[in-house]
Amino acid sequence: MDENTAQTQDSTAARADAPDLAAVRVAVIGAGNMGGPVAATLIEAGVRPGHLQIANTSSDSSRRAAEEVGATAADSRDEALAQADVVVLGVKPYQILDLVTELRDRIPADAVVISLAAGITLAQLEDALGEGRAVLRAMPNTPISVGEGAVGLMRGSAVTDAQHQLIHALFARAGVAVDITEDQVHAFIGAAGSLAGFAFAIIEAMTEEAVRQGLTRDLDDSLVQQTMRGAATMLLDSGVHPAVAKAGVCSPGGTTAEGYAALEREGVRAGLAAAMDAAARRSRELTTS
User: Fold this and answer.
1) What are the extents of the domains in the chain?
2) What CATH architecture applies to the domain 3-180?
3) Angle at the Cα of 246 from the Cα atoms of 244 and 250, rounded to 5 degrees
4) pLDDT by 10-residue block (mean), the chain, 289 residues
5) Nearest Cα to 91, choosing from 38, 49, 44, 149?
6) Regarding the domain delimited by 195-288, which CATH topology (the fold level of the hierarchy) does it fall under?
């Protein structure tokens, strides 16, 4: 059996073992800046729009959020939770423990609870939910809204293997979903959670400089964004280390080598490292506060 045949059989087997998401019922409590993209991702993965109910703070807010992601607006939290297999909590960190305490008797006993709140630990969530309740933490970043993001998943002590597999299937269209520990979540924030914001800042700076150099803004936007996308795709598709890829485009005495030398002189590498470290450090502060 050749390698391609083996990979095809493995992929087919994985699909055969995958949960039937069309039968899964999801309640999203708080479909805002992060809960909304998560809801859209779950529908993209295969959850039926009629099986994903959104309950925000008001009926109008629930309706707007549901229309935006193609889900269903619940008339109340009780309605959303009644038959839920999965409950996504997308409220602010300062709200979530009070919310969990309020809702724990209304969340079905066999439902998996997913918290999107930064800084609130599994131990705190499990204590608020009660013994034996399945809970995970999920740290997504905003590019999941276009299927090109990253999600860090932290598994609680009562989550079964089947529930764990279900959650991975639900986030299969997010981009990449990885298992991390709570000790790793702070590094994840720097490397993925906040990184999109840093990338936006870098792209903005490149765009403004290209305008200064004489390109029109509409042309400049497409050139910079497509090139950044292409560079990331090349690395993902090839598996080549970034240092090797960089060396391949830095011809001796050429334009890229000269530009890269300027990056080093200006301390761009150190600045990026400092930004990621600051995000991770703030994540630790939020968890311990």
Assistant:
1) 3-180, 195-288
2) 3-Layer(aba) Sandwich (3.40)
3) 120
4) 47 59 96 94 97 96 95 96 96 94 94 95 95 95 94 96 97 97 94 94 96 94 95 95 95 95 96 95 83
5) 38
6) ProC C-terminal domain-like fold (1.10.3730)
pLDDT (0 to 100) of residue 51: 97
Q: Which helix (H) or strand (E) holds 251?
A: none
- Partners of residue 55 on adjacent β-strands: 29
Distance, CA of 280 to CA of 223 (rounded, Å): 31
Place of tokens 């932290």: 154
- The rounded distance, in Å, linking the Cα atoms of 142 and 193 is 8
How much is the pLDDT for 261? 96
- 35 CB-near residues (< 8 Å, 6+ apart): 28, 29, 65, 88, 90, 91, 116
Record the tokens describing residue 177, joined without a space: 């979903």
d(CA 167, CA 170): 5
Rounded Cα gap, residues 117 and 182, in angstroms: 13
Among 108, 112, 48, CA closest to 80: 108
d(CA 76, CA 54): 9
Radius of gyration in angstroms for the set of CA atoms belonging to the chain, rounded to a whole number: 22
Q: Is the pTM of this model over 0.85?
A: yes
State which amino acid sits at residue 138: A
Strand-pair category, 112-115 with 86-89 = parallel
Token pair of 185 as six digits: 């979540």
Exposure of 125 by Cβ count < 10 A (0-12 exposed, 13-18 middle, 19+ buried)? buried
| 105 DSSP assignment | T
Which element (helix H / strand E) includes 12?
Answer: helix 3-17
3-class secondary structure, 4: helix
DSSP string, 119-180: T--HHHHHHHH-TT-EEEEEEE-GGGGGT-EEEEEEE-TT--HHHHHHHHHHTTTSEEEEE-
